[in-house]
Inverse folding.
């Protein structure tokens, strides 16, 4: 029997594997950020480290690195289904060209690092820009391994092997942490070296080894008739710059105009906001995408739309209550994770306020990840690119004005507003051009979930006010007890109310909870609850 990580996984298991990998990766990311906040707090040194990713990430996005696997999967599926030899020829051609291109671009960025540093953080002084250029030269070569590794990961996704791509970011974060600890005496430079080492091992070598176990026929190839079509499909993603892609860079660029510490506060807040988004939405989007692409190629549109609707509903049903509770729990969350060492109480207050603003549109992040992949499954990369670029261009003056007038709070408001605008534009375009089958009943169900979540805040807020430990004497223990008590009361209240009022919406989750979940629906005394109980007995 083949090892688990070499086998193909079905959609449900794939989502679990990816969710587990993302959750572990996010925890590793939090551990990494905890070390940074412990050693350097929200200072110029930490600002420089976060700003050092602006140019490398832009290079990655310029070559559609964030969507590389997504755009490549439908082509690999098509060519490998027709003829395996043709599939390898197409894969080899794409791999050859991406290696040549990213190597050339990386070399240019390495040479011109001092000039690029100013573009990454225009609000910094001359000495700070010089150190930023050093960080940039260490980090930028990692893009070669990210892009080439993404190419190999697309092959694994096409084979429905999800374990190694889920493991890659965990290994990547491990190396960053190790670099920061081992080279602590060199400031944030140690974390930069960890980024480079992690990209080599986690994002490149691991996928290559996994691909080789299933057989690889890679050769040097500069031409394939499908290359032009692939480039035309990927071109909108290279030229277009969706707000979801540049949001993190805008936070760093415009954060540099908002004073020392602003970039770090915004970065810490954004990382916390994206933990539930990544675990819930990214897992659903990544796991569903190969299946969506397969359904669309086979022209099974009924199941195609049903899969989109199911993924959207499940994502919103989880993300809406999570984000609403996290708004309530923002301060103890930041206090528990970051307040230590160089990161003080004022840093906690500033970061928590920014986190609350960003969480307002956390559900939009999850929603657009699923809907965006639905566009790509239809081989339509142009529409999201155009809409995303329009929203991005319109948001630039918004970011600038709010950063100057409101500081880091203005940057957070601009970020949340831009995501809301992009999500709305994607939805309206799909409904106008494709139809509303994928959204049938979605708005009404989400509105009910939101209402129940807000009601569930009342007992959570009340119990959170009870001080089991003195916050001034035991700040971390007090924060932990507040999170546990408020989270527990919120979860219980929400589950009971949802099982009674919207059993059909929460049925996928209640059924997975086993007999207890089905009993909750039955105990509600509604027709929907009884129906779930009956169906549950047949599982």
């Amino acid at each position: 029997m083949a090892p688990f990580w070499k086998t193909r996984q079905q959609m449900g298991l794939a989502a679990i594997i990816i969710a587990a990998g993302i959750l572990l990766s996010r925890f590793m990311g939090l551990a990494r950020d905890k070390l940074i906040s412990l050693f350097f707090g929200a200072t110029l040194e930490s600002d420089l480290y976060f700003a050092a990713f602006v140019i490398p990430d832009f290079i990655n996005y310029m070559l559609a690195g964030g969507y590389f696997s997504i755009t490549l999967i439908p082509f690999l599926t098509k060519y490998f289904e027709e003829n395996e030899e043709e599939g390898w020829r197409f894969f080899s051609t794409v791999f050859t060209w991406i290696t040549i291109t990213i190597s050339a671009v990386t070399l240019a960025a390495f040479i011109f690092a001092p000039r690029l540093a100013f573009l990454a953080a225009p609000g910094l002084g001359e000495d700070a820009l010089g150190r930023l250029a050093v960080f940039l030269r260490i980090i930028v070569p990692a893009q070669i391994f990210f892009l080439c590794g993404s190419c190999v990961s697309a092959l694994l996704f096409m084979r429905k092997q999800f374990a190694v791509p889920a493991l890659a970011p965990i290994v990547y974060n491990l190396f960053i942490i190790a670099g920061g600890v081992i080279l602590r005496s060199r400031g944030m430079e140690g974390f930069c070296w960890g980024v480079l080492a992690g990209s080599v091992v986690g994002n490149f070598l691991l996928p290559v080894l996994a691909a080789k176990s299933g057989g690889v026929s890679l050769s040097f190839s500069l031409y394939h008739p499908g290359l032009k079509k692939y480039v035309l499909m990927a071109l909108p993603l290279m030229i277009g710059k969706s707000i979801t892609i540049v949001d993190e860079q805008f936070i760093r660029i415009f954060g540099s105009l908002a004073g020392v510490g602003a970039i770090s506060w915004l970065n810490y807040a954004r990382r916390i906001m994206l933990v539930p988004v990544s675990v819930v939405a990214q897992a659903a989007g990544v796991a569903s995408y190969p299946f969506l692409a397969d359904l669309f190629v086979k022209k099974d549109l009924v199941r195609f739309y049903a899969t989109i609707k199911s993924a959207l509903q499940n994502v919103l049903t989880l993300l809406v209550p999570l984000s609403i509770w996290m708004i309530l729990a923002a301060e103890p969350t930041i206090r528990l994770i970051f307040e230590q060492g160089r990161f003080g109480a004022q840093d906690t207050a500033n970061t928590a306020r920014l986190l609350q603003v960003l969480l307002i549109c956390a559900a939009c992040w999850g929603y657009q990840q699923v809907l965006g992949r639905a566009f790509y499954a239809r081989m339509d990369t142009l529409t999201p690119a155009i809409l995303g670029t329009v929203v991005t261009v319109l948001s630039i003056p918004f970011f600038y004005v709010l950063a100057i007038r409101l500081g880091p709070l203005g940057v957070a408001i601009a970020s949340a507003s831009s995501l809301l605008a992009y999500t709305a534009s994607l939805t309206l375009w799909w409904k106008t051009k494709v139809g509303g089958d994928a959204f049938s009943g979605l708005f009404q169900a989400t509105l009910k979930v939101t209402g129940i979540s807000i009601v569930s805040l009342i007992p959570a807020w009340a119990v959170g006010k009870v001080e089991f430990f003195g916050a001034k004497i035991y700040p971390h223990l007090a924060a932990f007890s507040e999170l546990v008590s408020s989270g527990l009361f919120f979860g219980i209240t929400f589950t009971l109310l949802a099982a009674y009022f919207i059993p059909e919406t929460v049925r996928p989750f209640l059924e997975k909870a086993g007999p207890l979940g089905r009993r909750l629906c039955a105990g509600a005394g509604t027709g929907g609850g009884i129906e779930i109980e009956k169906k549950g007995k047949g599982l």
About this structure: The longest helix spans residues 262-297.
